[in-house]
Amino acid sequence: MKLRAAVVGATGIAGQQFLVALQDHPLFEVVQLAGSERSAGKRYHQAVGWNVAEPMPTKFREMDVVDGSKLSLDGVDIVFTAVESDAAKELEPRYAERVPVISTASAYRYETDVPILIPAVNGDQASLIKVQQKKRGTKGFITPIPNCTTTGLVIALAPLARSFGLEKVVMTSMQAVSGAGRSPGVIALDIVDNVIPYIAKEEEKVEREVKKILGALIGEEIVPDAVQVSATCTRVAVLDGHFETATVALKHKASLAEVRAAMERFGADINPSTHPSAPRQWITVHDDPYRPQPRRDRDADRGMTTSVGRLREDKVLGEHAVKFVLVSHNTKMGAAMGAVLVAEDLLRRGIIAG
Amino acid sequence: MKLRAAVVGATGIAGQQFLVALQDHPLFEVVQLAGSERSAGKRYHQAVGWNVAEPMPTKFREMDVVDGSKLSLDGVDIVFTAVESDAAKELEPRYAERVPVISTASAYRYETDVPILIPAVNGDQASLIKVQQKKRGTKGFITPIPNCTTTGLVIALAPLARSFGLEKVVMTSMQAVSGAGRSPGVIALDIVDNVIPYIAKEEEKVEREVKKILGALIGEEIVPDAVQVSATCTRVAVLDGHFETATVALKHKASLAEVRAAMERFGADINPSTHPSAPRQWITVHDDPYRPQPRRDRDADRGMTTSVGRLREDKVLGEHAVKFVLVSHNTKMGAAMGAVLVAEDLLRRGIIAG
Amino acid sequence: MKLRAAVVGATGIAGQQFLVALQDHPLFEVVQLAGSERSAGKRYHQAVGWNVAEPMPTKFREMDVVDGSKLSLDGVDIVFTAVESDAAKELEPRYAERVPVISTASAYRYETDVPILIPAVNGDQASLIKVQQKKRGTKGFITPIPNCTTTGLVIALAPLARSFGLEKVVMTSMQAVSGAGRSPGVIALDIVDNVIPYIAKEEEKVEREVKKILGALIGEEIVPDAVQVSATCTRVAVLDGHFETATVALKHKASLAEVRAAMERFGADINPSTHPSAPRQWITVHDDPYRPQPRRDRDADRGMTTSVGRLREDKVLGEHAVKFVLVSHNTKMGAAMGAVLVAEDLLRRGIIAG
Amino acid sequence: MKLRAAVVGATGIAGQQFLVALQDHPLFEVVQLAGSERSAGKRYHQAVGWNVAEPMPTKFREMDVVDGSKLSLDGVDIVFTAVESDAAKELEPRYAERVPVISTASAYRYETDVPILIPAVNGDQASLIKVQQKKRGTKGFITPIPNCTTTGLVIALAPLARSFGLEKVVMTSMQAVSGAGRSPGVIALDIVDNVIPYIAKEEEKVEREVKKILGALIGEEIVPDAVQVSATCTRVAVLDGHFETATVALKHKASLAEVRAAMERFGADINPSTHPSAPRQWITVHDDPYRPQPRRDRDADRGMTTSVGRLREDKVLGEHAVKFVLVSHNTKMGAAMGAVLVAEDLLRRGIIAG
User: How many CB atoms lie within 10 A of CB D49?
Assistant: First the structure.
């Protein structure tokens, strides 16, 4: 028996990706599609401008799209939301009264009773959900995933945090245009033959989310990790796949071989045998200095593997510092499929009832 | 009376840029064009595949191209070289026996008796040239300009070094494809919809050159500045203009307003009234967080101005740290026109005889 | 004494280009800037998101922007409009009651009493303006320029039409993204690593406008040329400059040398000595088969020259057929500066009073 | 029992694609890899710079690369060649003395006893191979596939040729950079923000090959079809997938519905059930005027389907004319996988012994 899922924001790019990620899922069955008032009442294929590389799953073509603000939760076991922050702010608490809500929006990420989950990184913070339910008196709950730029960075940092401790991180991102969506997204006149040096609110999100995700759940709240993060976020003419350079000061001495080993063994217990959407290898470390590249590495293991390369010692940021680059697929692990992976983990932990 | 100049490597991209920079120059007149053995004996327009945005100056079309290894220096007062490092290694000392050689190549950058000059930054290091001439017993000398990625960074750092002292720099570059030239340069299959995370030897050059250029000439040698530099150099799908993000720890406390003021007044005494190729403003600081961008800012003041933006405090790299982004035109200030500017400065200082 | 001009739609891209084209114009002085209701009441630099390569002319920075629908024409001798078709439909007749209106919009292009002017091509059709004024009882009039894709094509065709007669034209365009403006324009997700095979209404405009522009003014109306035009219009990842391939069946036999000569001498009497915005050479014919290219040729003579290349015989379209490619700057000759050139010509002809 | 195949030119891009196409092939097993003298003696993974989207098949990593000019054909049943024309000229006849040679090179395409095969289009021309063997006294033979730009065009034309007859074709291509390979291929400096109007020899190939492929095998030779083809071939900033616009004059009247139906039913008998590499649908006709696009449609059915769109009547080229656009994957159907499909067809026809 699969859990019955509603996808809210189903006509947007992230919503389309949810449908791709869920189309043949062994644990979830999409039974409701919700969109804006404008889409409501149409068949899905009439309401959507399909924009994802994979073809539109035929099973959803003729499904009706309902108004997300009028979504009935009868017969719905779980809701995946892919809406803008303002809409999320209003809709998600309503849904959470009755069912679990896994969200790609930032609206509730920074509430003290809301964890930002990536199973291999901080799956244990899922127990904060009980606190949330108790405090809010809801049957369901809200669990957002991180910002897509946080995701790759914090996955690469997590094994270092555990094995060696983190002191400081200086990061520069070169982000793909798909991260900005289509309304209006990044226009070609701004990005062809160019770099855009600023993405509003992005740096603050990354700096805050890394600390929270790597934090410790003590009693009923998460104590953020002490790591200091300095981010500069830019946009480049890449379609999908965020590229980041990171310089990291560790608390304890670690050879490059030890760093690499910690990365390569990271997340081994969360794999496709237990979590259908999990990557076989959470982090791949490249030897070739010309890798990873967004175009050639973003799709590693269905876009779920984080690719690290150019691992080097750093003499500048701290006594025990390393630097590296990474590629993470912003619309796969960094969005819908990453959210589905969270649902899989919560199901396995019994926080979502199977 | 203008000085008579030879341009060696005149058919390559940097050589073409020399011809553009020198075509109507008030102080220099190009009288000889030299290229490889293969180009020798041809008219310039037959030997060259013109690839610079500006049109080929008509006055050079019918000039003969001679073999750089057989260049006669009779009637030549100064040589500008734009050849690969290996060729530079061999040719430049020969020319330097008789005349000043201003070079874009890295071959002699790291010799103890060779300064790497940017007039507003370290024009005083020009006096090392006398040491070089004495030591090598030459009438002329060799003066290289920095690597094009060093140029923008060190110009932005110089006012901070002078006013507040530098401790640490963490830099990520997103470099234009023109920096790789055309033989074969960056192929489209590698860079469209992509980022390349590595440029061979580039990071080492930047780290070493910044320290030397900001160093102090004490007695007969340059003592490198103590600043520690950590660079990650990447290539993006931009035609011209290197973009860099920099996080900088200062020795002494400085407000953002003070940092900005130091940048804005930097280099004021080296301007078009004294140096025809100098920018009116060496560093422009943008308020708009979406600027500078390579495409929209690289050509500021004929590609000679360094554009800084997103100036912010940084809490991570040091007690007194700032961060910013910059755009520098890699084939104007960072190459031929930057070299011509050095010649103008040496002429003014009397190191090149007028 | 310069004519006093108002620019309507001054904050859009085409409006910005009008300001660049008019900033130091010997015959026109911009005295009013009009925009949408939203822009009205602001200073120009506050109302505009400046997006043109050239810097914003300082003289317009602090000018007030008025609401185009409330524009007073007191003290205005001529209006240049750069607004969407719907707005043009409403505003232009109002302005035309009192003053000449030179428009980039398509709203009135296909009216029988409205010529679509390019001075070197069909300047004589300007006499239709008298018919328009008489018929409409207006002091002013409306004269639109062609669609930017028509412009380059019809300039290249005009000398062939005159010298050899035209029978058929098969054309494929590869158009720049700037042609779509910014609201929202072409988004990067759609055009990077891609071609878009369709531009709504574009082909119909080109097919219709070529016939009208090359038509004959007989009595009080234009009889369209009999040439049959078949266009396929596409969008490519180019910032500025429309590229077109054209196969053309001529009525009369013509050697390639004759075709070339006809192109090269075309428009010689309309040049900067008589029309400040006119190109010195209306059509340049390249020998190098790798030219023209949008990026390297769009800016020829301030973007006013049409660059033709790959001139070849064609055996397929007709008995006397040729084929070629062309590049035309869609936002210079194809928009604002092309409109200013029309005003210059009408002034010279006395249709606009000097 | 699979046929034992050698791949010659295995380290180039087309060679890599052969390995991808053949890695799990039910009928062919790659037993030899050949390259240039420089690659000979190395393991495959040492000799190759892997540049294809799909990962390098593990089974070939450790295979030895032999010198193509010294390739032993003992134990080889078929040779796939992916070398430059000059090398093909020399090597292919040697191989063909003993075994079938399926080639991507143009060296022998225009010989009278050599068919250029696309199974659904002109599979019957395969009987020319017997003529070739008799004439040349060889056990094997040479069969090239068409130029990658011909392939999509001739597939789209074939159903029209059969059902309605062809008179004239005017075609403009916008070709992907992968078609130029990597030695040096198209450099980024030439194609970013640009269109290149010329590809050497391409137009002649397309014009000639279409006529031959659509020709009739009469007696012992192919009589080219009478269709007249006029091609203009250009390069755009697209990684993979050639886009073409075609205007086609038919001999007999045909409604758009009839044209569409002819395209859609084309090739139905050559499908994956009989030919593992064949597309399920040879030609897909899109209704959405914004499709096909290279990036979104090139990979249709493993890159083997030709995508047609914008099917319209044309009034210009002839009495019964239509126009359309198409996308064809130049390195899948247009290269290696297209060649493998030819081998499958020849095997089925008994021309290659199973």
Answer: 10
**C-alpha span between D169 and D154 (Å, rounded):** 11
Shortest distance between the Cα of C180 and any Cα of chain A, in A, equals 10
CATH code of domain A148-328? 3.30.360.10
Q: Is C247 helix (H, G, I), strand (E, B) or coil?
A: strand
Give dist(CA C103, CA C100) in Å, integer.
Answer: 10
User: Of chain C residues 15-44, which have a CB less than 8 A from chain D?
Assistant: none
B49 touches chain D (CB under 8 A): no
The answer to whether the beta carbons of residues D289 and D309 sit under 8 Å apart is: yes
Separation between Cα atoms, residue B110 and residue C266, nearest integer Å: 58
Q: Which of D236, D239, D315 sits opposite C174 (nearest CB)?
A: D236
Q: What is the pTM of this model?
A: 0.96
Does B218 contact D at CB distance below 8 Å? no
Tell me whether the omega of the peptide bond preceding residue B144 falls within 30 degrees of 0, making it cis. Answer: no
Burial class (CB in 10 A: 0-12, 13-18, 19+), A232: buried
**How do residues D18-44 score in pLDDT, each as one tens digit?**
999 999 999 999 999 999 999 999 999
Of the candidates A4, A170, A17, A14, the residue with the CA atom closest to the CA atom of residue A76: A4
Residues 6+ apart with CB under 8 A from A289: A309, A310, B197, B198
State whether A188 and C193 contact (CB < 8 Å): no
Q: Rounded to a whole number, what is the distance in Å from the CA of B223 to chain A's nearest CA?
A: 19
On whether the CB atoms of residues D159 and D313 are closer than 8 A, the answer is no
Q: What angle do CA C12, C14, C18 make, to 5 degrees?
A: 110
**Inter-helix orientation angle D148-164/D202-213, to 10°:** 40
Amino acid at A99: V
Q: Considering CB atoms only, which of A53, A193, A296 is closest to D193?
A: A193
Which residue carries 């004024």 as its tokens? C133
Return d(Cα D45, Cα D60) in angstroms, integer: 8
Instruction: Of A125, A100, A171, give the one whose Cα is nearest residue A323.
Output: A171
The alpha helices in D197-326, defined as continuous H runs, are 202-213, 256-265, 294-297, 300-303
**Which residues in chain C are contacts of D290 at CB distance < 8 A?**
196-198
Residue-wise pLDDT tens digits, D275-311 = 999 999 999 999 999 999 999 999 999 999 999 999 9
Residue D191: closest C-alpha in chain B? B188
Which SS3 state, helix, strand or coil, does residue B33 take?
strand
The string of DSSP codes covering B270-335 is: SSTTT-TTS-SSSEEE--STT---HHHHTTHHHHTSEEEEEEEEESSS-SEEEEEEEEE-TTTTTS
| Residue from C16, C60, C66 nearest C38 by CA | C66
Degrees, nearest 5: CA angle A195-A198-A203:
130
Q: Residue A136 corresponds to which tokens in the numbers above?
A: 């809010």
Which chains are within 8 Å of A by 3+ CB pairs? B, C, D
Q: If one looks up domain D3-145+336-348 in CATH, what number appears? A: 3.40.50.720
Spatial contact of D222 and D113, defined as CB atoms under 8 Å apart: no
Does position B56 have pLDDT exceeding 90, yes or no? Answer: yes
Domain spans in chain C, listed from the N-terminal domain onward: 3-145+336-348, 148-328
Q: Min CA distance, B178 vs chain D (Å)?
A: 6
- Give the tens place of pLDDT for each residue, C305-325: 999 999 999 999 999 999 999
* Mean pLDDT over the full length of chain B: 97
- Of these residues, B233, B242, B275, B286, which one is catalytic? B242
Report the residue of A203, A207, A236 to disrupt the B interface, i.e. the one with the largest count of B CBs within 10 Å. Answer: A236
Sequence-ordered alpha helix ranges (H) in chain D:
13-22, 44-47, 58-61, 85-96, 119-122, 128-136, 148-164, 188-191, 202-213, 256-265, 294-297, 300-303, 336-348
Q: What amino acid occupies position C304?
A: M
| D92 phi, psi to nearest 5 deg | -60, -40
